[in-house]
Amino acid sequence: MNLDMKKIGEYIQLRRKLTGMTQAQLGERLHVTAQSISNWERGLLLPDTATLPDLAHILDTTVDCLLTGGDCPLRFRRRMTVERLREAMGCIQRLREILGAEHPFFRTMVDALDARLNSSIETAFQREGAMDAYLCEALLFCIDQGDYVDRDNVKAGIANERAASAVIARLDAMGIR
Question: Could you tell me which of 43, 67, 44, 45 has the C-alpha nearest to residue 55?
Answer without folding.
Answer: 67
